Amino acid sequence: MQAKRPYHHANLKQSLLGAAVHLLAEAGPQGFTLREVARRAGVSHNAPYRHFKDKDDLLAAMAAEGFDRLTASMNAAIAEGDSAADRLGLAGRGYVEFAVGSPQHLVVMFETTVAGCSPKYAEAGMRAFQVLLNGIEAVQAEGGLPEGDPHPFAVVAWAAVHGLAKLAIAGRLPFDATRTVQFTNYLSQAVLHGMANLPHPLPPTAG
After folding, report:
1. pLDDT tens-digit map of 123-172
2. Rounded distance, CA 125 to CA 187, Å?
3. What is the C-alpha to C-alpha distance for residues 51 and 58, in angstroms, rounded to an integer?
4. Which of 2, 68, 80, 144 is least buried, going by the fewest C-beta atoms within 10 A?
């Protein structure tokens, strides 16, 4: 008998991730199965288990990939800024540009239960959040925001651009994707102006 040949498939992991993204966009989390991912990737139904222990592990990998792409989008946008305030606004634009261009990634990043599947998911999420946090701290250092814990300001900025992105993806805005990205500039300015003219939301406790 001939010895069984080892399994070979170029870039198997990336092929599975690509197929998974398309499946999630079409079928949603409820219609997402490893078997269907394998079929779409053109591999055997056991092939995904060479890289992922189960469906949640694959979803966690997709979410981590999404956060890494989000980080790259924000960093690319920030590079155009001249001041800390400019860069913070541009980070928001990079966020929305990523979201409207990869809505299926946004679903798995924020709307599926994958946080406990892989530390890579949490690490990738923290890297993305750190871009925003660094931006807030830089604005504080330039005197554009009150001193104190930067996290509440980061949450406000995050909530604003994430909410805009979700409305855009749902088709609930009165303008297209291009104008949504343009509107992000105004939203970021409005949020920063509001935060700059209000006291810190969580002042230090006495004692």
Report:
1. 999 999 999 999 999 999 999 999 999 999 999 999 999 999 999 999 99
2. 23
3. 8
4. 2
Please report the pLDDT score of residue 56 as a whole number: 87
DSSP string, the chain: -PPPPPP--TTHHHHHHHHHHHHHHHHTGGG--HHHHHHHHTS-TTGGGGT-SSHHHHHHHHHHHHHHHHHHHHHHHHTT-SSHHHHHHHHHHHHHHHHHH-HHHHHHHHSS--TTT-HHHHHHHHHHHHHHHHHHHHHHHTTSS-SS-SHHHHHHHHHHHHHHHHHHHTT-SSS-HHHHHHHHHHHHHHHHHHHHTS--SSPPPP-
Comparing C-alpha atoms, which of 23, 11, 17, 134 is closest to residue 64?
17
Using only C-alpha atoms, what is the Rg of the chain? Answer: 20
